[in-house]
Amino acid sequence: MTHNELRKYLLDHYPESRLQLMTDERKAALLAEYPKLPSDYVQFLCEVGFGAIGYGRYSVYGGPAEPSFVFDQVTADGLRDVVLIGDDFAGGQEAFQFRSEGTIFGSIDSLSGRFEPDGDVTFSNFIERWLVERP
Does pTM surpass 0.85? Predict the structure, then answer.
């Protein structure tokens, strides 16, 4: 599914969604601050958007958030190489971990507070799996 098809699907099936498209200016600022962000994620923000999907189904942040935005200081300190990018309004957090071999997509385990990689999945694939394949 292309990003345009995904945006149309989300707005058609979750009409309460409030997705805003990222501007070119904000994209440039985002990439200057986080040059290791995957291109799929950046394009998602520009072509699908950020904000709430549905009524409490999922929230795509308008850019990466530091773990201390959500977690206590001890947990956040253990996630120094991680940025949060979205959540399911029920404690689930998706994130990127910056490693020397590349940027990895995954989730933060709500019990352990540790990052768990999600294989070779992109953020777009995750949203499709979460909201299209199992609505």
Answer: yes
116 pLDDT higher than 70: yes
Looking at residue 112, its amino acid is S
Nearest Cα neighbor of 20 from 56, 60, 65 is 60
84: left (phi over 0), alpha (psi -120 to 50) or beta: beta
DSSP the chain: --HHHHHHHHHHH-TT-EEEPPPHHHHHHHHHH-TTS-HHHHHHHHHT-EEEETTTTEEEEEEEE-GGGTS-HHHHHTTTTEEEEEE-SSS-EEEEEEETTEEEEEEE-TTT--EEE-TT--HHHHHHHHHTS--
Residues in a beta bridge with 19: 51
